[in-house]
From TrEMBL:
Residues 71-464 form the Major facilitator superfamily (MFS) profile domain. Residues 12-26, 34-49 have a biased composition (Polar residues). The keyword rRNA-binding does not apply. It comes from Hortaea werneckii EXF-2000. InterPro entries: MFS (IPR011701), MFS_dom (IPR020846), MFS_trans_sf (IPR036259), MFS_Transporter (IPR051788). GO terms for molecular function: transmembrane transporter activity. GO terms for cellular component: membrane. Its main location: membrane. The lineage of its organism: Eukaryota, Fungi, Dikarya, Ascomycota, Pezizomycotina. It is a multi-pass membrane protein. The chain crosses the membrane at residues 102-125, 146-171, 191-212, 224-244, 323-341, 353-372, 378-399, 411-434, 440-460. Keywords: Membrane, Transmembrane, Transmembrane helix. This is Major facilitator superfamily (MFS) profile domain-containing protein.
Amino acid sequence: MDITDVGNLRANSSYKASHGETTAPSSARCADAQKNQMSQDPEVSQPPTMQDRNVAVVVPSFSFPAKNKWRVLAACLIYFGNGMNDSAPGALIPYIEDYYNIGYAVVSLIWVTNAVGFILAAFFADVLRERFGRATTLMGSECSMIAGYIIAACSPPFPAVVIAYLLLGFGNAINLALNNVFCGNLANPTIILGAAHGSYGIGGILGPIVATALASNGILWSRFYLVTIGVRLTCFAFGGWAFWGLETEPPSQFHHNSNDAQDEQSGVTRQPSKMRLLGRALQNRITLIGALFIFTYQGAEVAESGWFISYLIDYRNGNPQKVGYVTAGFWGGITVGRFVITHASRKVGEKKLVFGLGAGVLIFQLMSWLIPDVIGNAVAVAIVGLLLGPVCPCAWSMFNHLLTPNIQTTSVGFISSAGSSGGAIVPLITGLLAQTEGTYVLHPVCIASFVVMLICWAGMPRVSKRKE
């Protein structure tokens, strides 16, 4: 029996219990045997479950409750917008530098404030969700991003653009934390996260294509953000509708009630404060290893996307109007990898898959550096994206799988903020070094990041689910 069958078995059992039907003891023993069999296979993802003798296990899925189909679609749309947001700066950097007459080091400040927005969101994501609900919080995150785009679209002085990226980082981090937790707690989380992050890759493809097409035809670089405003308005409306009332549906009520039951069994009568939850998250091994892993992963990903075009212009005599599309190839590889290769995790397991992909990433990163040809570099970096793409959904599935429910949202928010910090610090280091040494430094920086990423992955526990 695979994970799909187990997820369906749990959902069907819960449905029967809620309608007054009973399950035979032999069926219960069979379910226990299946659970024990799965617990002995640590490489196969399982959605988080509750151990409570008084509460039936309910695992929401893509189709249960029925509105989850629209929620997953809304999450994919939001990821699509995030992909456009993150990939476009790489194609726009040469035009931004010319418009404001600034260098690599100064333009890198947009990634710094973007990271500050992510870090701030780590402290507020869970608080806002509990106070206002998931739907309202999600709409608020979209409003933050819309405000940032409006500022950037007006071609203001560069300091205002830097502030706009802070708003983008804050909104991006909140919707990322909410959607990662939602998708990660559904049945077959690796597959659903693969689709969601694959949608991010599709946005990553279109971002540089649209940005390059506009800027290379004489349209001001900032007008690209009028396109993203339209995308975020759609996310605001669709996401708000899809997630409205989520907390009142049976699976959400179950998770709330089962947490209460666990507290009663352990003698806990009060909910810990938000700062205490953050403290627990920061003391959690999975949170810390995951934060460093995503820091290096996203740092290398953003540095590759942001600086590879500049590298081709400086060292391969690339034409800015043509090589701007190379970034789309990188994101195209990421997208194909997330939709296609991610499924292999069900057979070989996330841990083995990521190790194999990481080795391939290192090889093709070297090739993108050493091959003295624009076309060869473009092909190599596209394959880097292909192999790098499945790493993120596999990692998020593993984190959601291992983190306990009481710190999950807080931990995911912290890991997301660490990822954005990497997405700011690694490109910033690349920009500072490029200012004095040249943009070739992109390659050793990315290689070092990938090595650290694999070391972190080796430190991830092999148990099927950690308990506190």
